[in-house]
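Notebook B, p. 112. Complex prediction, attempt 2.
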Amino acid sequence: MRLNEHFKNLGESYLFVTIAKKVAAYQKEHPEAKIIRLGIGDVTRPLAPAVIDALHKAVEDQARQETFHGYSPDSDGYPFLREAIAGYYKNFGVELDPSEIFVGDGAKSDLGNMLDLFDRDNTVLIPDPVYPVYVDTNVMDGRPIVYLDATEENGFLPLPDPGRRADLIYLCSPNNPTGAAYNKEQLQAWVDYALEQKAVLLYDAAYEAFITEPGLPHSIFEIPGAKQCAMEFCSLSKTAGFTGMRCGYTVLPRELRFGGVSLGKLWQRRQGCKFNGVSYLTQRGAQAVFTPEGQRQIREAIACYQENARVMMEALDRLGIPYTGGVNSPYLWLKCPEGLGSWDYFDFLLERAQIVGTPGEGFGRNGEGWFRLTAFGDPAQTREAMARLERLGQ
Amino acid sequence: MRLNEHFKNLGESYLFVTIAKKVAAYQKEHPEAKIIRLGIGDVTRPLAPAVIDALHKAVEDQARQETFHGYSPDSDGYPFLREAIAGYYKNFGVELDPSEIFVGDGAKSDLGNMLDLFDRDNTVLIPDPVYPVYVDTNVMDGRPIVYLDATEENGFLPLPDPGRRADLIYLCSPNNPTGAAYNKEQLQAWVDYALEQKAVLLYDAAYEAFITEPGLPHSIFEIPGAKQCAMEFCSLSKTAGFTGMRCGYTVLPRELRFGGVSLGKLWQRRQGCKFNGVSYLTQRGAQAVFTPEGQRQIREAIACYQENARVMMEALDRLGIPYTGGVNSPYLWLKCPEGLGSWDYFDFLLERAQIVGTPGEGFGRNGEGWFRLTAFGDPAQTREAMARLERLGQ
């Protein structure tokens, strides 16, 4: 019996483990210290009341034989939810049939499992810095990876290099970790490149709800030609506080075909074989997110995080610390002070201001010298963290 | 861009689609017909009151900032649930550390995704007839499959052939579709064979809660040596009516190592990359299943299904129809009348008795000439179905 030897090439996932260890050690030495965590991108506000009501009602459905829901008729989601999501896309002027929307238990699962559809010899193009899952899931399959430099010079929004070969292309906009967001012209360049290369664009739109600048695309399908080359991964985690609920959706348009084969049909076959649908309760909760009441309520939570981001940006501006993100994203991507590596800056902020962030180096080579803070914290704590930073002059 | 070409080798999953079409066509022609569905293995009884209470409470947790649960600290399950499951295993005399138990969203997902750990050149041994997922998930990876005949002659409980090479071995006991269950001596032969072959046993115990005969093993880990060669897949779907809730657990003992590599560690790495844990609500509901109250309540539901099975077995005995299963399983595996193929018998029962079952041919070559009925139906409907069968003399 031979193991998948590609696992040997995976780096250990030290990042958040190391952070947790350092924080625990500091807290032990300084039991009185009030540490403020702006590191992990997890939400802190409770679920919207409309979602809570829908969940209680769904639990009651499961308590009675007449309304009990067993296996969902389709591993890709109940029609009520797929239709609600198709309705949401109309906000962006994107027309989708519910059958082009596949409900899953989160963007992370779908991003990873989607790779089952592709040969292991394809060349993968991944921006650096990046959400580490894109890299690790391809390393597990032994696919060759080419990195694309996202740097201060290109505003962390690299554009395609027409001379470079790629089969699978990852884009995340608004970006994790940098918070930078592509405009329509830039995404058009990517769509044109993917069509020319006959490549697939794996577009991660998990943070679209945080876009505030008018005119920026919320969906890759706002771009002409995208339905022929792109799939889009979305999540309710950050949008509606579903990090503990587990629900996302992936869009595979009918036009997305390679050699006559529909990727949507392949994905349906993959999921039908290795997945049995998202919990009925979760799907009912997700449906409530897309009602007018649910939308109003989740916008309130998002506005609260956006206010945190504003508070943080103002403090950074006053301090003269260069950063990206914040405007269209819950993430702020700070430049570390001259000469400090991202782990040095981590230690510095922990020790001198009791603030926990994420060292940019954890997101790839180009993340060195940068640092991620999230706007998902409690508002009072976020203000206190910025006050500490300003007292420090740093 | 090249697709995973192995998808071309997948048979279309016609089975339940074809059944649904035939039933719909019959109902359209006979709108007055009262069709009784004993085909798909889905439960019909609502969730246990203890589970319902736990779910409502968990929903309330998600409604308040102080008790809100976001990302679970570990994609492999909350300690409260892993500890509860370890406690359950003590019923079988099996000692497990909670860290050896991995909570997932169902046995189907875990069975499929587990294959990420293994090289694609391994030889897979799969009994026939069988749960089609074992076959399809390996076909998707292009792994060579050797089938093992489960027939009336061997009581649908094939034993290892020491001369046959295997790397990955699938066993399901009590079996889907045949309902046959291995005893300890038979499982010992499989464990000895796996150890001798240095193979991995993928043991599907999804139906263990339906075992009634004393002395039959509920877990492969009751067998000496199993911790060195086996992993066990379990599910709350049939045990606690969780088909729509999505929760299962997979046991990878610490001793399960190949070339010094712990399969549990590899699985943890796989899940950490491509999965973000089971919904907090579901895990709280699952925890309630393992309380004394929850156990008493789920045993009542199982007893109801077992009573259905008893009614069915008595009818088949009176009719002189040969079958296996029913005693230790919610499935009954009937021999079709002489000369009738399993699809012929399907049509016969639908047209003459308005009973829907599952043609054995859908489970593999050796399923031809056999037919599966499930005991998961409503008790009154199950009795009515058997009365129709007896009136038919068939």
